[in-house]
Design brief:
Blueprint: H1 12-16, E1 19-30, E2 33-44, E3 48-53, H2 59-66, E4 74-79, E5 82-84, H3 89-94, E6 97-100, H4 112-117, H5 129-143, H6 158-171, E7 176-180, H7 188-203, E8 207-211, H8 215-221, E9 224-229, E10 232-238, H9 244-252, E11 270-279, E12 287-295, E13 298-303, H10 310-317, E14 325-330, E15 333-334, H11 340-345, E16 348-351, H12 355-359, H13 366-371, H14 382-395, H15 412-424, E17 430-434, H16 442-457, E18 461-465, H17 469-475, E19 478-483, E20 486-492, H18 498-505
The structure holds adenosine-5'-triphosphate.
Keywords: ATP-binding, Nucleotide-binding
Protein name: ABC transporter ATP-binding protein
InterPro entries: AAA+_ATPase, ABC_carbohydrate_import_ATPase, ABC_transporter-like_ATP-bd, ABC_transporter-like_CS, P-loop_NTPase
Length: 518
C-alpha cells in the first residue's frame, strides 16, 4: 500500500513520496522507429506528474509499457520497488496500475454500474448491485465524482463517461493512474472538477501521470514533469524548476513563439455567407437564424462549449448537412444543401473535428489519404501521390516512416497533421477549421497558427471553431459566440471582453435576454 503524504500540499509529497512505479532503461522499437530509447521514469505516491513531449516523442508508448499494453524490448519495469513483467493491462491492474485512454472503453448500452464491474476478474471478487451502488456513492463522495449508477452510458456526456472510467479504476483499487490527454474531451467547467478529483487521489497517496500538451494545465495542477523528445527523456524535475518557456524548449529543442500576429490590412469582400440558417432541434440543439459573413483576409473565431450548434453549422457550411432554412454561398455560388463536392468546388476546405470519422480513412496510407478528396481519386497517379505525401510529411514535420505508412499507426498529433496537410494544402480560398490544434504539441500549435495567419494574410477567409477560448482570442480578428444553436455575441477581437464572452457562452445575449435553449 502506498505511504500517504502528511498533507496535501502541492509538490511536497511528490518529491518525497514512496516510489510506486518506475521504468528503468526501457527501450521499445516499432518497425523503423525507436519509440522509447533507454527511458527512465518514476512515479511517486502523492504526486501528479506531467508526461510531456512533442507528437511522436514516445509518451503513449511509455504509458502503454507501464500499464501492460506493450512489453519493453529491454529494460525493467518496477512496481513498489519490485520488478514486474506485465503480459496484459489486466496484469498491470492486478498490481494497481491503470490507464484511462482518450477513447473510453465503456459499453454504451450498459448502465454505469454494469460498466464498473464489467471485466473485473479479481479472484473471489463479487459485488452485489447494492454493493456497487454503495461503492459508487462512497467513491463519488470521497473524490468528488458525481454519477448515477443506474444511468445508461449512452445518455452520459463525455465528462460523465470519464468519471465512470475513474470510478472503475478506483473500484479496482489502483495506486497508479495514467490519463492520456484527459481534458481534450472536457468542457471548461469539467476540467476544474477533474483536477480537483485528481488532486484528492494524489492526496490519498496515489500517483497520477498526466499525458498532456497543455502547458497551462501542467503549471496549474502538476507537481513534477518529465519531458520526452525523440524517444528519450530530455528533462525531469519538480514543476518549480521549469517555466513554460523551458518546458517548450525541452520538448521541441528550440524556442517556440505563440504570440499572435494580428492582421494589418482591412478585410476584403465577403466570400463565405450564411443567412437565416435554421435546423430543427433533434438530438442536437439545432440552428436558429444564423447570419454570418466572412471576408477575404480575416479569421473569424466561433467560441462556445461543444454541442451548441458549432458542428451543425460547420457541416452545413461544408455541404455535409442540408439546412431546413436559409442559404450558404461560397465565393458567390449558392451551395446550400448541394453536398460537400459542390462546396469544395466553390472553394471551401473543411478540417473536421472528428479526424478519424469524417476526416481520414485510418486503414489507408498517408499518400492515399492525401488524395481522398481530389477529383482524380487516389487510384490515379500513384507516384504523384507519393511525391505529394513526401512533401507534406516534410513540410508538416509528420513523424512517419514514409508516404506508405498507414494512418492508424501514427500518433494522435501526427494524424491531425495529415488532415491539416490535405485540407490546408488544397487550392481553397475559404477554410472552415474545427479545433485545428487539438492533440498537437507546442511546435505543432505554433506551426498551425502561423499557417492560418499566413493564409489569412494572403487573402483566405477562415472560420475557426474551437472550444479553447485562448485559441479563439489569440487567432481571430472577429469573435462570434454560439449557444444552443444561436449566435449570442459578436465582436471585433480588439474589443474582446472576457466577462461578456463568458456570459454569451452560457446563453446570455445582451439586454437582459437569454437565448432560447430548447
Ligand atoms: N503500434 C505502433 N506501430 C508502429 N509504430 C508505432 C506504434 N505506436 C507508436 N508508434 C510510433 O512510435 C513513435 C512514438 O509514438 P507515441 O504514440 O508513443 O508518441 P506520443 O508521444 O504519444 O505522441 P502524440 O502526442 O502525438 O500522441 C511514433 O513515431 C509512432 O509513429
Amino acid at each position: 500500500m502506498a505511504s500517504r503524504p502528511a498533507n496535501g500540499e502541492r509538490g511536497r509529497a511528490g518529491a518525497s513520496g514512496a516510489l510506486l512505479a518506475e521504468a528503468r532503461n526501457v527501450s521499445k522499437a516499432f518497425t523503423g522507429v525507436l519509440a522509447n530509447d533507454r527511458v527512465d521514469f518514476e512515479l511517486r505516491a502523492g504526486e501528479i506528474h506531467a508526461l510531456l513531449g512533442e507528437n511522436g516523442a514516445g509518451k503513449s508508448t511509455l504509458a502503454s509499457i507501464l500499464t501492460g499494453l506493450y512489453s519493453a524490448d529491454s529494460g525493467e519495469i518496477r512496481v513498489a520497488g519490485q520488478p514486474v513483467s506485465f503480459r496484459s493491462p489486466r496484469d498491470a491492474l492486478a498490481r494497481g496500475v491503470g490507464i484511462i485512454h482518450q477513447h473510453f472503453h465503456l459499453v454504451d448500452r450498459f448502465t454505469v454500474a454494469e460498466n464498473i464491474v464489467l471485466g473485473d476478474t479479481r479472484q473471489g471478487f463479487f459485488m452485489s448491485p447494492a454493493g456497487i451502488r454503495r461503492a459508487v456513492a462512497d467513491l463519488g463522495d470521497r473524490y468528488g465524482l458525481e454519477i448515477a449508477p443506474d444511468a445508461t452510458v449512452a445518455e452520459l456526456s463525455l465528462g460523465e463517461r470519464q468519471r465512470v472510467e475513474i470510478v472503475k479504476m478506483l473500484v479496482r483499487e489502483v495506486d497508479v493512474l495514467f490519463l492520456d490527454e484527459p481534458t481534450a474531451v472536457l468542457a471548461p467547467g469539467e476540467v476544474e472538477a477533474l483536477f480537483a478529483t485528481l488532486r484528492r487521489m494524489a492526496d490519498d497517496g496515489k500517483a497520477i501521470a498526466l499525458v498532456t500538451h497543455k502547458l497551462n494545465e501542467v503549471f496549474s495542477i502538476c507537481d513534477r514533469a518529465t519531458v520526452m523528445r525523440g524517444g528519450k527523456v530530455v528533462a525531469a524535475a519538480a514543476i518549480e524548476d521549469f517555466t513554460p518557456e523551458t518546458i517548450a524548449r525541452a520538448m521541441v529543442g528550440r524556442d517556440v513563439d505563440l504570440k499572435p500576429r494580428p492582421s494589418t490590412r482591412a478585410p476584403g469582400a465577403v466570400v463565405l455567407a450564411a443567412s437565416g440558417l435554421g435546423m430543427e432541434a433533434g438530438h442536437h440543439c439545432g440552428l436558429h437564424g444564423i447570419d454570418l459573413e466572412i471576408r477575404a483576409g480575416e479569421i473569424v473565431g466561433i467560441a462556445g462549449v461543444a454541442g451548441n450548434g458549432q458542428l451543425q453549422l460547420a457541416e452545413v457550411l461544408a455541404g455535409l448537412q442540408r439546412p431546413d432554412a436559409g442559404k450558404v454561398t461560397v465565393n458567390g455560388t449558392d451551395v446550400t444543401g448541394k453536398g460537400p463536392h459542390a462546396a469544395r468546388k466553390a472553394g471551401l476546405a473543411y478540417v473536421p473535428e472528428d479526424r478519424l470519422g469524417t476526416g481520414l480513412a485510418s486503414g489507408l496510407s498517408i499518400a492515399d489519404n492525401l488524395m481522398l478528396t481530389s477529383d482524380t481519386g487516389f487510384l490515379f497517379d500513384r507516384s504523384g501521390s507519393r511525391k505529394k505525401a513526401a512533401a507534406a510529411i516534410g513540410e508538416y514535420r509528420v513523424k512517419a516512416s514514409g508516404p506508405e505508412e498507414v494512418v492508424r499507426r501514427l500518433s494522435g498529433g501526427n494524424v491531425q497533421k495529415i488532415l491539416l496537410a490535405r485540407e490546408l494544402g488544397s487550392q481553397a480560398s475559404v477554410f472552415v477549421v474545427a479545433s485545428p490544434a487539438r492533440g498537437l504539441d507546442v511546435a505543432g500549435i505554433e506551426f498551425v497558427r502561423n499557417l492560418l495567419q499566413d493564409y489569412r494574410d494572403r487573402g483566405a477567409a477562415i472560420l475557426l471553431i474551437s472550444e479553447d477560448l485562448d485559441e479563439v482570442r489569440l487567432l481571430s480578428d472577429r469573435i462570434v459566440v454560439m449557444h444552443a444553436g444561436h449566435i449570442t455575441h459578436q465582436c471585433a477581437a480588439v474589443d474582446y471582453d472576457e466577462a461578456a464572452i463568458g456570459l454569451a457562452i452560457s446563453g446570455y445575449s445582451g439586454g437582459g435576454r437569454f437565448a432560447d435553449t430548447r
